[in-house]
Amino acid sequence: MITKPKGTVDITGTDSILWEYVNEVVSTMMHAYNYEYIRTPIFESRELFHRSVGDTSDIVKKETYDFQDKGERNLTLRPEGTAGVVRSFIENKNYALPDIKKYFYNGTMYRYERPQKGRLREFTQFGVEVLGSNDPIIDAEVISLQYHILEALHISNLQVNINSLGDLESRENYKKALVKYLEPHLDELCEDCRERFKTNPLRILDCKVDKDSSILKNAPKTIDYLNKESKERFDTVLKYLDYLDIDYEVDSQIVRGLDYYDHTVFEIVSLDKEETKANVLGGGGRYNKLIKELDGPDSYGIGFACGMDRIIDVLKEIDLYKTVEKQIDCFVMYVSEEEKLYALDIVQNLRLNGVVTETNSLNKSLKGQFSEADRLKAKYLIILNNEDLQKGLVNVKDNATKEEEKVDISEIVEYIIGNL
Ligand code: AMP
Q1: Are 276 and 80 a contacting pair, CB within 8 Å?
Q2: Same domain, 300 and 265
Q3: How much is the pTM?
């Protein structure tokens, strides 16, 4: 038997109903905030991720799926969404437009990680990228959008953990202080962190192994090293979040795993879930240097990404699971070949009018069809028999009240729609 690759999932049955439901809520909210849907390739040139996510990031160092195509191009399955969106924005010269661009995406990402609950090798993220504005109102909008999508999905007890890395000057000052602080503790850190100390010390704060060590917990805080401008900027973002009634906590340990962030960085968690990495449902931040870094103009950017798979896991734990269970509107029942021809026509008419309809396609007895209709939770049963059909009538049974009624065949669609 051929099995699926390690770290991937099949989405079927009730899970797929939840997926469709989440996609619909995401899409509705994105449109309400006036974000435009963008689709970029699942694979991109390897260089794109080295230059954006960063050579020293865990993702690029250990987790990318790299391959060469038959034309010997070095390609990578995308590990995240931002790089591709920014590449597209630059390549299509969308920066030439006078307004900001607000994109949303929803697609699969690939990271060669050690699979466990909430951590897959192929997973789906939806997210946004806003390009062209440095106004803190956009930081607040992006955070609020992420928050309200999760709230609209009935995920309770949400909290935004937020921090600021500041501008380049603040970051450099912080880096110096961090290096000075960490140097005497180097041999107490993991091997990766000792390496990170040489290449990118900030990354140590994000270490999955050393995260809870007292060394990291007592490390200097980025917000204490913000210059005046960066500090004012961060305070404004927090003020706007207060106005929007978003629950947040300033968390100095959040630096995020990707190289391109500056200023605002954030994660969103559901406090109902136990405190593990898997309760982080999404995160994001500002990246004011990235567009230029990728050969675009000196412009601004901010975005977030949420993990669909983790969100679905949360939804499966709450009652919502039951309310989105699949139910069909109508099941059309027949036995003879003559009745079947009527069924074909009625089923098509109902479907084309948006009524979710199923019929007998396994040559079942009436008893078998009643059972199937119950399993599908059909709201109405349309039972065809030759005698009534000759008179232009069909039997409609309300499957909840069990009441039956004869309806003119030419009025069946209106009748069902009127009663749904
Ligand atoms: P990141 O792109 O690492 O900032 O992650 C943003 C969100 O994507 C996380 O909060 C998770 O919800 C989700 N995510 C990241 N990596 C994985 C993974 N390997 N498997 C499932 N979800 C993931």
Answers
A1: no
A2: yes
A3: 0.90
